[in-house]
Amino acid sequence: MRQAVPVELSSLVGRAAEVARTRALLASERLVTLTGPAGVGKTRIAVRAVRELCGGRGADVVWADLSRVPPEPGGGPAAELGAALAGREALLVLDGCEHLGGRAGQLAGELLARWPGVRILATSQQVLGVAGEALLAVGPLALPAAPEDPAAPCAVAGVALSTAVRLYVERARGAAPRFELTEHNAGAVAALCRALDGIPGALELAAARARRHEPAEALRRLTADPLEFLAGGAGRAGGADALRLCRLAPPGERLLWERLSVFAGSFDEAAVAEVCGFGALGPGDAVRTLRRLAPALLAEPGHAGRYRLPLTVRAYAARRLALDPHGDGATAVRRHHERCRITAERAAQLWRSGAQLEARALALRELPELRLAMDPHAPAGPAAALEVAVSLWFLWSACGRVEEGRGHLERALALHPAPRPARALWLAAWLVASFGQAEAADPLLVEAWTAAVQEGEDTVLAYLAHIRGTVALWRDRPAEAAGEYRDALEQLPEEPEFGPGRQALEAALEMALARTDPDAHPFGARAGDGTDLWARSWTGYAQALLQRRDGRPALARTWLLRSLKTQLALGDRLGQALSVELLAQLEADLGRYELSARLLGAVSGYRPASACAPRAERVLRLKLTPEALRTAYAEGTRTPLRELLPEL
Predict the structure, then answer these.
(1) Tens digit of pLDDT for each residue in 256-298?
(2) Any idea what DSSP says for residue 30?
(3) Could you give the CA distance from residue 575 to residue 581 in angstroms, rounded to a whole number?
(4) Do 233 and 256 fall into the same domain?
C-alpha cells in the first residue's frame, strides 16, 4: 500500500496554477483535498506539488496509493500508516480516497488527531467531510471555444492556445513524431478535445492513437463508441474508475450514476429531481445524492449549479442502465423525453411572449438534451421527435441553425408513417424554400397544403402563403411577395399557438411594400413597435429601404445597424444577409466599393442558393476590376461581420 512518490514520466501541461495553489494551501492547512472527476489529473498535480515542496527528495513524505487497499473494512490501512508516521513531522499523501468510500474521512480524521505533526494531501472524487478540510476543485484543461459556424475554417493559432490542445498535440507527437497541428486538422483536434471534456487522462489515451488515426477519424470513432475507442485505458479516462466506486457506494449513489447517463449535456438539481427521482430514489433523495457526487462531475462553465458526466463515464453508466433488470432505464428515458418536450414548448412560449433572447438561451442551453428528444429512433418515436422539432421552429429559422433543423425534420419525417403531420411538413418546407433551393421544397409544399386541409390547420395554410411570399421576395418579385403576405395575414389567427406571430408576418409585408409601394403603411404606428424583437429587426430593414429611396443614407444606415444588432444577437442569418446587402448598396452609393464587396463576402454563405444576385454586386462589377472584386469579396468571407462594422 505504501510507496515512494511516483516518478513523473511525462510533462505536466497547463497545471501551474493548481500546483501553486496546492503548495499554498499545504503551507497553512493540515488537510488539503484535491477533488474532481476521474482522469482529471489530481494525482499528477499532487506529485508535482509534493516534489516541489520537498525539492525532489521526498524524504519527509509518505505516499499511500489507496486504490490497492482491499475494499473490505478489515483491510483498513490505519495501523500501517500509523506505524509509518509515528513521531514524524511528515506529509502524508492519501491518493485515491474514493476507493475507501466513507472510510476515507474516518481514516484522515484519526491520523490527524493521533499525529499532530502530520499534514495530509488527499486526492478524491468526493469530499472527505473532515473538520478543517481545505478543498481545491480540479477542473478540466481549458478548451478551444466552439465555433459559431462549424463550416468556417479553424484558425490554428487560436486553437493552439488551449491547454487541452497543447496536451493532445504533445502526446500525439510522442506516438507519431511527425504529427503537427495544421489548418487541415485543427478543427478536428479542437472538436476531439471538446468531446473528451478536456480531461487529461482521456486526451492522453486519444493522443496515443495518433499513429493509427487522423484526428477526424479519431473523432468519428470516439463519437460512435467511446468505450471501444478508449478500450484498455478507460479507467484512466474516468469511466471504469467512476463506476468501480459504485460497488462501494450506497445503493442510491449507484442508481443516480446510472440514471444520470440519460442526460447528453448538463443538468441541474431540478432536472435531476424530475428525471432521476423515482422509484427507490425519490426526487429529494436524488438531489441530496447529486450534491454528494458533485465533486466527481464536471461543472458547467458559466452556469453555477449545473454539471455534466464526462463522456466515458456516461458511456459506462448508460451500458449499466440498459442492463438494469428493474426497467429503470426505460422509465428514465421516458421521463427525460417528457422534460424535453416541456422545455421546447416553454422556449416557444417565451419567444411568443417577446422574451426572444431568453428563449434562444434556454433552447441552446438544453440543446444536447433536445437533440436526444428529436431522435426518431428513440423509444418515443418519430411523431414525438417532430413535436419537439416544430416547437423549436424559431431556433432553426430565426436563430440561424437551419441545417440542423432540416436534418432533424427530414430524419423524423422519413420514418413517420403516412399521413405526415402538416406542421412538420410546413417547417421542413420553410427551411428548404426560404433558406435553400426553393424548387426542392415544391413536393413538401404540396404535401403540407394537402395535410393542412385534411387536418383543418388554417395556421399552416397561412404559413405556406408566407413561404411563397418569402421565396418571391428573394427572387426580387416584391409585388408577388406582398400579395402572398396579405393572404397569409388574412388566414393567420390573432394569436397562433405555434410558429411566427402576426408581427413577423406584418414586418414581411412592410418589407415587400417598401420595394413596391413605399407610401403604403398598412399597420401605421404599430409597425416596429410590437413586442416581437425579431419582427422589429425586419421592420427596421424595411425602414432602411424607405430612407435610402428618399435620399437619407445616414438614417438608412442607422436603421440597418439597429436591425443588425438584433439579428446578430439572435443569430438570424437570413436577416443579416438582407441587412448587410442593403448596407453594401449604401457603401457603393458613397463610392466605397471595396468595403461594399467585403460586406457582400461576409454574408455570402447566408444566402439561399436560389436567390437573385445582390443589387450592389451589379454596381461593383462595373466599378471594380474582376481581380479587385474577387480579392475584396474573399477578404470579406474570412472576416467576422463585427470586424467590418465596428459600430456594432
Answers:
(1) 999 999 999 999 999 999 999 999 999 999 999 999 999 999 9
(2) S
(3) 10
(4) no
- Mention every residue, 6+ apart, whose C-beta is less than 8 A from residue 269: 287, 290, 291, 305
Same domain as 624, residue 581 = yes
Which pLDDT score, from 0 to 100, does residue 330 have?
92
* C-alpha cell recorded at residue 625: 476590376
Strands 134-137 and 31-35 turn out to be parallel
The DSSP code for 101 is T
Residues 6+ apart with CB under 8 A from 47: 5, 6, 8
DSSP 384: H
Task: State the Rg of the chain over Cα.
Answer: 30
Distance CA 29, CA 27 (A): 6
Q: What is the pLDDT of residue 240?
A: 54
Q: How far apart are CA 517 and CA 525, in angstroms?
A: 17
Q: Rounded to an integer, what distance in angstroms lies between the CA atom of residue 592 and that of residue 80?
A: 81
Amino acid at 532: D
What is the rounded CA–CA span in Å between residue 490 and residue 493?
Answer: 8
Domain span at 172: 156-237
Last residue of one domain, picked from the residues 527, 554, 571:
527
- The per-residue pLDDT for range 146-164, each reduced to its tens digit, is 876 666 667 888 899 999 9
Question: Torsion angle of alpha carbons 451, 452, 453, 456, nearest 10°?
Answer: 120
Query: With 0-12 CB in 10 A as exposed, 13-18 as middle and 19+ as buried, what is 89?
Result: exposed
Q: What is the pTM of this model?
A: 0.87
